[in-house]
Amino acid sequence: MNEEYNFTVVKEFLLLGFQGSQCFRIFLFFLLLLVYFGTICGNLLIITLVSTSKNLQTPMYFFISQLSISDILLTTDIAPNMFHILLNDGAKISFIGCITQFCFFGAMEASECFLLTVMSYDRYLAICNPLRYTSIMTNDNCMKLAVVSWLLGLVVLLLDAVTISTLLFCASNIIDHFFCDILPLLDLACSGTSIVQIQSFVLSVPAIFTPTSIIIYSYTNIVLAILRIPSNLGRQKAFSTCSSHLIVVCVYYWTIFSVYVVPTRRKTMTIIKVLSLLYTVFTPMINPMIYSLRNKDIKKATYDMINKYKT
What we know:
Layout: E1 12-15, H1 22-52, H2 59-88, E2 91-94, H3 95-128, H4 130-136, H5 139-165, E3 174-175, H6 182-188, H7 194-227, H8 232-260, H9 269-293, H10 296-310
Parallel strand pairs: 1-3
Antiparallel strand pairs: 1-2
Helix pairs in contact: 1-2, 1-9, 1-10, 2-3, 2-9, 3-4, 3-5, 3-7, 3-8, 5-7, 7-8, 8-9
């Protein structure tokens, strides 16, 4: 019986990141650094515009600013250590540091799911029930919805993080990834992972599948409402108010489902890392671009702010 417990408990992990030649890793470093810089600048611009421009003091833009905060926190949790990994061809991270990174990453991902759901509900009310929109989406209710989205994200992933921290890691400490995610951690665990897997599946219902169902329901009703509008101009105007959000939802959920829902056996680790790179680094940069390039109000607020500083 003593032999069963004769092992060295892993106290740190080695993140391999993206393996390749030094030239490839340096190129990837500068590319991702540029993307990270664009992410921070783009999302900070959205937050600044929404908080300072009177024309953007609406529920829709308030939730867009909350999404920008989530994107900044998400990519900042992943990117700095990823740069270190690329420059050093791998890097060590402590057990506590790994769990902490996973906790912050998961909380931001779950919060973003809830925020996107609230935004779809906002668009549903604006298009399908416009007469009650202002009475329902008050400033107090918007703040409550945002706070609940953040708190639910924290609660869902804290439960996962606490359970994972109780697992024993005693064999290999090599993680073939660029950050601490649940799938590679479960692969390395020496103790049973069935409880964690069951818990993750149960938590995925309120964190992923329920928000997805609400978004699908909202946009099904939105599309039906738009199709009932008699004029082409009216239909185009109605669709333009939610097209940006729909694009963001499609990009975000496509990558999430590709990594965590599609069976792992069908994907190589390289594919998983590339897909993870999309929703942790590239999507946070794309979101403000989609909202700004397709939105006249944000463009106008940007021009007004530039002209204000020029004068």
